[in-house]
Amino acid sequence: MTKGTETRYRVRGGRPLHGTVFVQGAKNAALKMIAASLLTSRGRTVLRNVPPIEDVRRAVELAQAVGALVEFHEVERTLVVDASGLSSPVLPAEIARRFRGSVLFVPALLHRFGEAVIEGIGGCNLGNRNLDFHYRGFARLGATVDEGDAVIRIKAGKLRGAHLYLDTPSHTGTENLIMAASLAPGTTIIDNTAQEPEVLDVIAFLTKMGADISGGGTGFITVRGVTELTAVEHTVMADRIDAGVFAMAAAATGGELNLVGAALEHFGVVRWKLEQMGVEFASQGAVLQVRRDRPLRPINVITSPYPGFATDLQSPIMALACLADGNSYIRETIFDGRYALVPELNKMGAKVELDSNVAIAHGPTVLRGTDVVATDLRTGIALVLAGLAAEGETVVTPGYLIDRGHASIAQRFSALGADITAETAS
Length: 426
Known about the structure:
The chain is α/β, with parallel strands linked by helices. 30% of the residues lie in helices and 26% in strands. It has helices spanning 27-36, 54-65, 93-96, 106-113, 132-140, 171-182, 197-209, 240-253, 269-277, 314-321, 341-347, 377-389, 400-403, 409-414, and strands at 6-12, 18-22, 44-48, 69-73, 78-82, 90-91, 115-119, 144-147, 151-155, 163-165, 187-191, 212-214, 220-224, 233-235, 256-260, 280-284, 287-291, 300-302, 327-331, 352-355, 358-362, 371-373, 393-397, 419-425.
């Protein structure tokens, strides 16, 4: 999609979904691995099962902007990175502004150049300062952070191992500090780390490269610095958020789907909540069967770090809760902005009210198609799910936000019997 063109999704609902869908590779693992592949100047890294989504394309552009040679073979879902000739420590504004994951490239640039410069993300752009703990962590490892109006400059003569504590178990923060510590002499201990499956996959990738990391999945990680890392081949795990969205699509439409590559153990609390609603799961090797043929029951959901209910699936389950027989209570504890979905669902005939920090979905309601606005990726995909269950036609704009996290969403849903098209808005 060229910049400046607006895409939207047109969904005509009322069709139960049936068939087989291939779960894409995990966005939240692939992005970190692309950045980590720049830590080594030796050999070519091969990543398989990389999802062809907009965020991955931005990460590829950033890697190329600092001098890496990157080939993304989208049909084969394979990425090849040669980082032997990095040429610049500057992450340019035109990409960094459109891609929140820019900060993931800082560890490689610090180790390769002794500095990293992020343009276009000045102090005023950080919103709730959610990147502060990255910079505090780099500072604890010995870097100096200079935050200007339109640029952040991080310098490090030499990083050294240190004891770090994360205020919240952020998975991006955990992975970023592990990357930085991998080549820092001495021992780094990171306390209160994230335990998501994607974090473990990134640790497995770094370990293959030669990093010395222990404690993944325990909340307390130890990294012993090594002198160098080498390029390896790795297959990215399946995306549990993508899998969760398709499971909820089966539930919303009263269908039955086979999810190829989905791992039920990666769902965490999401599995139990969907089962409480009346969704049935059956694992058959690497294929997860999902179906719903009875009325949906209401639920209570509180988002929390893994293995709790994933905040990224809060919006889709809110859409699903509108169809359940009774009142559902949904409390968001991680990202306040998730409730932007509420007025859009209500445009479609839902009865969702906000009471302090709890969304109450009064169901069941008959959803009716209309024009709705996606404020972010997760809101966007939730509105597509609502559209699949609604009467009439739903138009979700902009489509770009959905494409940031889900590959070929119209084609994949159409193959399951949905009536959905992606179109360029004039």
